[in-house]
Amino acid sequence: MSLRGVVRRAAGALVHRVWEAVRAAGTVSPASPAGYRFRRLGEGACLSFPIGAVFGEAWIEIGDHTLVGERVSISAGMGPGVDLGPDSIVRIGRSCSIGRGSHIVGHQSIDIGDDVFTGPYVYITDQNHVYDDPETPIGRQWPRNNPVVIGSGSWLGTGAIILPGTRIGRQCVVAGGAVVRGTFPDHSVIAGIPAKVVRRYVPGEGWLPPHLGGTGVNGAGAGPAEPSEPVGTT
Question: 166-181 burial, b for 16+ CB within 10 Å, e for fewer?
């Protein structure tokens, strides 16, 4: 190997070692100064470095052994320094894994159960813009909040969007790229734009599509938004 090759190899190894040290130092854990700002950051939980936009930590709870991936943004409220009242707004349960580049944007209530896993770039919000006044720019109209619940044991695929008012049951699968709004029962496979139940677990029969009786109580979830309802995400 040439001298230039040896130097490049040594420099590359040094860069990787330094980067690993930076990542370890920048990780937010219960023992780090940044961890103290959260309402609760459970034992063994961590936010990987580089972190995304995180603010309103006093209204955010993250359970034990939950891993938040790189560049994940978690926010409570419109911006830093706002008093949001006595209760937490964003609650993530224990042993969850939030994929890199995801956004969890809470204004009223987002409740994510235990053992919930997401792929990268998932978007979860409890607030939508409205368009009630046709003359006022939509971005200047006061948004509307609606709580979100994601049941324990669920999996959210890459790029899924969870809109305000959504209630996903336990042990559900949300397909990648789905746009989800409405109420969905336990043990559902949810897919599409707008998302609907495409399979449902029936004890003794397995996972069945709707035409074979797999819809169950609560139907297939939400249909498309009505014209008078808020659309879009903040």
Answer: bbbbbbbbbbeebbbb
Instruction: Report the 3 state secondary structure along 51-86.
Output: CCCEECHHHEEECCCCEECCCCEEEECCCCCCCCCC
Q: What is the pTM of this model?
A: 0.86
E strands of 119-214, at which residues? 123-125, 127-128, 144-145, 148-150, 155-156, 161-162, 167-168, 173-174, 179-180, 183-184, 188-191, 196-202, 206-208
Residue 152 DSSP symbol = T
- How does pLDDT run across 41-74, given as a tens digit for each residue? 999 999 999 999 999 999 999 999 999 999 999 9
- The position carrying tokens 């990542």 is 23
CB atoms within 10 A of CB 76: 25
